[in-house]
Amino acid sequence: MSDQRILVTYLTQAKDLQKKAEGIAVGMTVGSWTDLPAAKQAELQPYLGEAAGVTPLETLPNGDTRGLVTVSYPTRNFTVDIPSLLTGVFGKLSMDGKIKLVDIQLPDSFAAGFPGPKYGIAGVRRLTGTHGRPLAMSIFKSCLGMPFDDLKTQFRAQALGGLDLVKDDEIFFADDKAPFYERIKAFRHISAEVAEETGKQVLYAANLTGPVTELVERAKRAVEAGAQCLLVNVLPFGFDILHRLAADPDITVPLMAHPALAGAFYPSPDYGIATPLLLGRLMRLAGADLVLFPSPYGNVALDKTEALQLANNLTAANATLKPSFPVPSAGIHPGLVPQLFADFGVDQVVNAGGGIHGHPGGATEGAKAFVAAIDAVVAGRSLQEAAEQSPALAAALAKWGK
Amino acid sequence: MSDQRILVTYLTQAKDLQKKAEGIAVGMTVGSWTDLPAAKQAELQPYLGEAAGVTPLETLPNGDTRGLVTVSYPTRNFTVDIPSLLTGVFGKLSMDGKIKLVDIQLPDSFAAGFPGPKYGIAGVRRLTGTHGRPLAMSIFKSCLGMPFDDLKTQFRAQALGGLDLVKDDEIFFADDKAPFYERIKAFRHISAEVAEETGKQVLYAANLTGPVTELVERAKRAVEAGAQCLLVNVLPFGFDILHRLAADPDITVPLMAHPALAGAFYPSPDYGIATPLLLGRLMRLAGADLVLFPSPYGNVALDKTEALQLANNLTAANATLKPSFPVPSAGIHPGLVPQLFADFGVDQVVNAGGGIHGHPGGATEGAKAFVAAIDAVVAGRSLQEAAEQSPALAAALAKWGK
Q: Which residues of B touch A251 (CB under 8 A)?
């Protein structure tokens, strides 16, 4: 591994991109170079970054060039964790004018030190007994302040629609009315009852909260309490806790990464971290089995090229990392399922909140509409055709259109 | 506390800012409101956010208004930690178009649940025996790949100049040539020797790295090994680990927060988190005794108004939180000390890397030049005047000017 390099790509602007790349390569590794005595240079050479490529994109009014620069870093400069990577390739550099971190490509030997998804797409399909079609997930309409009984009713209603997954609202931290472990036990019981009735097992993703130093222990206790999946606000807590949860053999449930706070990083063209890296590569590396991200549809739409690249980073073949389930979210209604299928394929989770709870017939009908739409698309039938057999889908299409 | 409110201010744009504020207030708390039955409304009312104010700044070409909106959230919606706050007030909202998180104001009763700085400005002054003047700190020129003996030599040279603090390079994660605990022991020994010689005690800030789940334990072991201060890359690891380190009574050393990765959050006018909140309020709340941030000088300059607001958030009187030491960094040389003093006052740490190691006479002379400049400014003397008694300062002024 010692001679392996990590390739890091930045979007930036400068009079001379090549010089900029060389400045980053030195400044982010050994700090200075030309003024070092030869003996010192020989000693530090193995730690020296190198300019590995420049792609000019446009000439700016001020004469500067805007473009991509790639710098290669020796893997020996890093410990095998995301804080080390982010600090080492973008820490102080992030504050050095207009520069956006676009990609980090790790050699397999280095990536192998990361846990990656514990279950991955195949594992989550096994747990949900869902094959050959996208999964369907629902988000609680609202959790905060809701009486426990209301949440139980909401959970049952969603589960009865034949969904594969139901997740907590990510802002559900103050849960004194429906405490974490009690919620897990109660919903596990309800999902068993529903499975009796419908034959379909639904996984409940409980929002893992608490001090970052206690999350591993709380996750283990959650598993003992019957948890089937855990939702993690990865960015507010930091990538490394996802890494540690994924690496712990006692946490025997899939981990679902919520993108909360991601908008503080990715939307600017000049600053931050691009989504395919932030919510794609890094989430998979750290061990998310499922990753939510803004869909390229709806009113909080993500750029479509970025969304597809993000999904590709989650699913592309990798020597040591299992693939993660892409979960394009926000603005999803049954009429969008053909578009989702065309864009993200069979290995995705169709995830909706308002598109389920806002169904004229309620959450159960809303869930049924999604299941019907997914079955239709996989079978190559049109939604209109399927709506003839599914009043739930017909009602959804009538409300939201195609 | 149950009736206390948290005031959150955003910079955003909309056709109608008041409507936007109301949408955020509902969307980030109970999710929906007008369509709820009266009984449900009564039940959720205590959790409902409220629009608390709007400040239009400009009308945009498209007719929208750009401005500040303030939303008040009940403290009961949150657990007492920064991941809960950031997820609850900005999690999904960060992905909802052009919006920047500008400020979070906590009622004292809620802020009291956070540790805040363990030592604060008075405590760090006590530990360094430094009163009535800004402190002086130096950063290792380079750590990565350096032989242990070179680092010892570098440390001694900096310490001999009469500095109050010397810190690791923040990218120093892969430290096999000079392991964390061994480094702490060795530098503690050297600083004792230097204190014998100069009568001045220097604190060494060691870069705390490792799995986030082990940082508390590693910090305790570091203290046992003789650590005097710990450097933490707060943003790459997440705010909550700083909170837990600060709250642990066994970690009896000041915590120094490095701003690595901050540039991924603050520079965009439309997105992210403003520095006075990110590196000011939140760092203090979580427990940083010293906070580095980009100075308003030099080539990676922070906007001056923001830098001053940031420093004010670190030092302003607070019912329960000790003040944190502002450490305006980057581009600092002795000629800037009068400007630093005018801008940030006596309670700051003057921090330099190149401005010390780049001194024609070496690091010791570089450190002496800063100490002389600080003493002069506090005594109301000009640098030129002081340079007559300090060849080190004279040489620094000759190289870097005033």
A: none
